[in-house]
Amino acid sequence: MDERTMFSEHKEKYLTRNVKAVVPMLLQLFCWDLIGKKALKGAELDYLQIFEIKQTDEGSEITHRQEQPKFVETYEIPKRKLPELKIWVIDDGEHLTMLLPEDY
Q1: pLDDT of 29-75, one tens digit each?
Q2: What is the pLDDT of residues 12-23, one digit of tens each?
Q3: Res 2: pLDDT
Q4: Separation CA 87–CA 31 (nearest Å)
């Protein structure tokens, strides 16, 4: 895989201060892992990956989506109440940045 491809594992990863303060480390790693696995499989990835976390009666639900090409996948996390938030991961061509929408 070429280093210039979208979400290449060779690109530096960055987090905003808000992400470091608000998003649990395991959730950060889970999001990076989902993107990394899709990239390794050769999936066509949009420059913007979106994760929406919501609490459910059974635990939490993480929805991973992108706009182009359209993709939506939902993961159930039983017995674990994660903070309700939206996380963006952006590939600007040089770096990968995880941020909250209010950081933009």
Answers
A1: 999 999 999 999 999 999 999 999 999 999 999 999 999 999 999 99
A2: 999 999 999 999
A3: 41
A4: 9
Sign of torsion over alpha carbons 1, 45, 37, 82: positive
Structural domain spans, the chain: 12-103
Backbone angles phi, psi at 66, to 5 degrees: -150, 160
Q: DSSP states of 18-34 as a string? A: HHHHHS-HHHHHHHHHH
CATH match of 12-103 with 3.90.550.10: no
- Pairing between β-strand 48-55 and β-strand 59-66 as defined by DSSP bridges: antiparallel
8 A C-beta contact, residue 77 and residue 62: yes
* Cα distances (Å, whole numbers) of residue 17 to 8, 20, 54: 23, 5, 22
What's the pTM value of the predicted model, to 2 decimals?
Answer: 0.91
Phi, psi of 59 (to 5 degrees): 160, -115
